[in-house]
Write a structure and sequence with these properties.
5-stranded mixed sheet
C-alpha cells in the first residue's frame, strides 16, 4: 500500500528572505512539489533546489488546492505557499475545505501542517511605527467571494467599536468603489484627521510607505498590493510615525521615573475604575444602599400612607389616571405644555404621535407589537441592513389597517429618508442601443441632469456610459432613462450584450438578433462579468471573436465562438465551435450556454476558464489555445 504524503501549507511572510521563519525554510527544503501563485513562486525561487513546481495565475486557488491534495495522496510531500500568513486570507482554509469535501480524516488521511508567517497587518505596521498597539481587526474589501453588504456591515461595526482597522485587497483595476464607500462609512464614526498608513509591497523591491489621514487617503495610490491601516480615536502621528497608545497613561506617568502607584497597588480594583471589577463593585454598593433605604421604610410603617399620597399627587394613580393633585396633560403645543414640548411635538413625524396615542388608548399593547414598531422605524432610518431592513420596511405599522389613509401616511414616513442621512450610491450602465452608438443631445442632457453635481459619468470601451449617482429613488431614475430610449443594465458580474454598429446600420440583418439577446440575457447575473458580442458581417471588425461568447453573422447564418480571453499577454481568440447556425436556433443556443454557465460556474470564474474546466458546453468541446507567455497582473482580479 502506498504511503500517504503530506501537505505543508506555508506562509513565507512579506517576501524578504530575512522575514521567512526557520520552519518555513525547512519545510521548503523538505518538499518535493511546490504549488503556488506565479508571483509567490518567483519570490521564493532562490530558496528552491530542483523541486517540481506547479504555478498558476489569479483566481486559480481552487485548482491549486485540488492539485496539492491529489499529489499528496500520491505519497508526495507538497508545499502550498502563500505570502504573509497562510491562515490569514491564504491557502490554509481552502486546502482544508477541499479535504473536507473528500471526507478526509486526520488520523488516516494525508498529513497536514500549517506553518505560520508574518501577515501584512504586522509587516506593514512595523514600517508605520506602532499603529496596532490596541484592539485591531483585518477586513478584506474584495467582494468576489463575500457579499459587499456583509463587508460594509463589518466595516461599520469595526468603526463604531473604535478598532484599529487593516484593510486588505482595498482596490483593484475593476473594484474601485469599495474603498470609496469604506471611507464614507468610516467618516461617519471617525475624525477626518484620523491617521492612516498606506503600505505597498512591504519589504519587497518596490516598497512604498505613505502617511496620510482618513479624509485625504483616496488622493494617494491604492491598489491590490497596498495594505491600508486606519487608526482608532487615540492613534497619533509623531515625527512621521503612527502610534496607538495602549493605555499605560491611565495608571502610569511616562515622563518620570517615580510612579505614584507601587507595584503591589497597580492591579487593585480601586486603581482601575474603568474595569469590570470596579463596575461590579459600584453596582453592589448601589444595591446595598437601596436595601438600606427599604429597611428604613419597613421600620417606619406609619410613613407609607404619606408616601402613597405623594405618589397619587404625582399622577401615577391606578389605571394610569391622573391624581387629584395633578392637572390633566395638555395637548401638544399648548401653553401649559411648555415651550420645549411644543417644539418637539412639531418636529416629530405624524406616525410617531399616532402610534403614541394608539398605545395610550390600548393599554394591552404587547411587547411584540412595540418591538415591531421600533424595528420598523430603525429600518426607515437606515439603521438596519439587508433582509432585516426589507422585512421591517415592508411591515405595516401595528394597529393600522392596510389600505387606509393612515396606513399610507405611515408608509410615507417609513420610506422617507432620515434627515441628514446620505443617499446610497446607485450605479448603472446606459447606452442608446445594442448597435446604436449615437447619443442624442436630449439624451446627453438627461444624463447630465441625472448625474448633477453629486454624481459622475464614465465612458467605457463598450460604448456604454456608467452613471453613478446617490439617490433614494433608483427605480424612478431607471424609468426616466428608459423613457428616453436608453438601454439600462446593471454593472458588475452580469451578462453584457454588445454589437458593432452594423456599418452605420447599412448591414442590419442581424440587428433583430442583437436586440433579442439583449432582451433575454442582457443584465443577467453571472459568476463573472461576461461579454456576448455580435458582428453583423464576416469582416468581424468589432472583435466579437475575442470575447467570451462571439457571434458573427455571415452568409445568412451565424458562426459561434466560445471562450475568448481579450486581455493579458496570454490573450487568445475564442474557439470557433459552429458555423452557419440558422437564425431561429442561435438565440436559444446562446441562452442555453449562458444558463449552464450561470448554474455550474464557480464564483469569480471567468467564462473561458469555466469552458476549459467543464470540457463540454451544450455539446461543444473545449480545445486548448496555443501556449503563450504568461503575465502576472499586478492589479489583481
Amino acid at each position: 500500500m502506498q504511503s500517504q504524503g503530506k501537505l505543508l501549507i506555508i506562509g513565507f511572510g512579506p517576501g524578504a528572505m530575512e522575514h521567512i521563519t526557520t520552519r518555513a525554510l525547512e519545510a521548503l527544503r523538505e518538499s518535493e512539489v511546490i504549488i503556488g501563485y506565479n508571483t509567490y513562486v518567483d519570490l521564493i525561487r532562490p530558496l528552491l533546489d530542483g523541486q517540481e513546481i506547479v504555478r498558476t495565475g489569479m483566481t486559480e486557488e481552487v485548482s491549486r488546492a485540488q492539485e496539492a491534495v491529489r499529489q499528496a495522496e500520491m505519497g508526495k510531500i507538497v508545499a502550498v505557499i502563500s505570502s504573509g500568513d497562510a491562515g490569514v486570507y491564504g491557502m490554509a482554509g481552502l486546502v482544508y475545505e477541499v479535504l473536507m469535501e473528500q471526507g478526509w480524516k486526520p488520523e488516516s488521511g494525508v498529513g497536514v501542517e500549517v506553518i505560520p508567517g508574518v501577515s501584512a497587518i504586522q509587516s506593514c505596521a512595523s514600517l508605520l511605527g506602532a499603529p496596532v498597539m490596541h484592539d485591531a481587526c483585518t477586513i478584506s474589501l474584495s467582494d468576489h467571494l463575500t457579499p459587499w453588504e456583509t463587508i460594509i456591515r463589518r466595516v461599520e461595526a469595526a468603526a463604531a467599536a473604535d478598532f484599529v482597522i487593516a484593510l486588505y485587497n482595498p482596490r483593484s483595476g475593476r473594484r474601485t468603489r469599495q474603498i470609496v464607500e469604506t471611507q464614507e462609512m468610516l467618516l461617519r464614526y471617525r475624525s477626518p484627521q484620523t491617521p492612516v498608513g498606506l503600505v505597498k509591497s512591504a519589504y519587497r523591491e518596490r516598497q512604498d510607505v505613505v502617511m496620510t489621514t482618513l479624509e485625504d487617503m483616496l488622493n494617494h495610490d491604492i491598489g491590490m498590493l497596498t495594505t491600508v491601516i486606519i487608526g482608532n480615536s487615540s492613534t497619533m502621528m509623531y515625527e512621521g510615525l503612527m502610534v496607538t497608545p495602549r493605555g499605560y497613561q491611565r495608571k502610569y506617568t511616562l515622563n518620570t521615573a517615580e510612579q505614584s502607584l507601587r507595584p503591589h497597588e497597580r492591579l487593585r480594583t480601586e486603581a482601575e475604575p474603568w474595569s469590570l471589577g470596579a463596575m461590579e463593585a459600584r453596582s453592589a454598593a448601589s444595591a446595598d444602599a437601596a436595601d438600606t433605604v427599604r429597611d428604613a421604610q419597613t421600620a417606619q410603617p406609619a410613613a407609607e400612607p404619606a408616601l402613597r399620597g405623594a405618589s397619587t399627587s404625582a399622577g401615577t394613580g391606578p389605571q394610569g389616571q391622573h391624581g387629584a393633585g395633578m392637572p390633566a396633560a395638555q395637548p401638544s403645543g399648548s401653553p401649559a405644555g411648555g415651550g420645549s414640548t411644543a417644539v418637539l411635538s412639531a418636529e416629530r413625524p405624524a406616525a410617531v404621535n399616532t402610534a403614541a396615542r394608539t398605545a395610550e388608548a390600548q393599554p394591552g399593547t404587547g411587547a411584540a407589537e412595540l418591538a415591531a414598531e421600533a424595528l420598523t422605524r430603525l429600518a426607515a432610518g437606515g439603521k438596519l441592513a439587508g433582509e432585516a431592513a426589507s422585512r421591517w420596511l415592508d411591515a405595516a405599522v401595528p394597529g393600522v389597517p392596510a389600505g387606509t389613509p393612515q396606513a399610507a401616511a405611515d408608509a410615507a414616513v417609513r420610506t422617507a429618508p432620515e434627515p441628514g442621512r446620505k443617499a446610497p450610491l446607485f450605479e448603472i450602465g446606459v447606452s442608446p442601443g445594442v448597435g446604436n452608438k449615437k447619443f442624442t443631445a436630449a439624451q446627453m442632457a438627461l444624463l447630465a441632469q441625472c448625474a448633477s453635481e453629486e454624481g459622475e459619468l464614465e465612458y467605457t470601451p463598450e460604448h456604454q456610459i456608467i452613471l453613478r449617482v446617490p439617490t433614494f429613488e433608483p427605480a424612478q431614475l431607471v424609468e426616466e432613462l428608459r423613457a428616453a430610449n436608453f438601454i439600462v443594465v446593471p454593472i458588475g458580474d452580469v451578462i453584457k450584450v454588445k454589437a458593432c454598429d452594423f456599418c452605420d446600420m447599412e448591414k442590419d440583418d442581424a440587428v433583430p438578433m442583437a436586440n433579442h439577446l439583449q432582451a433575454v440575457i442582457g443584465g443577467l447575473s453571472a459568476p463573472k462579468e461576461t461579454s456576448v458580442a455580435l458582428n453583423g458581417c464576416g469582416m468581424a471588425c468589432y472583435g466579437a471573436v475575442l470575447e467570451d461568447i462571439g457571434i458573427v453573422y455571415r452568409k445568412g447564418g451565424y458562426d459561434l465562438f466560445l471562450g475568448g480571453k481579450k486581455f493579458g499577454r496570454n490573450a487568445h481568440p475564442a474557439q470557433p465551435v459552429a458555423e452557419g447556425i440558422p437564425g431561429d436556433q442561435i438565440g436559444g443556443m446562446v441562452e442555453r450556454i449562458v444558463a449552464e454557465y450561470k448554474e455550474k460556474g464557480h464564483p469569480n470564474e471567468r467564462f473561458h476558464k469555466f469552458f476549459k474546466r467543464v470540457g463540454v458546453i451544450q455539446g461543444f468541446r473545449h480545445v486548448d489555445a496555443p501556449v503563450t507567455v504568461e503575465v502576472n497582473p499586478v492589479c489583481g482580479d
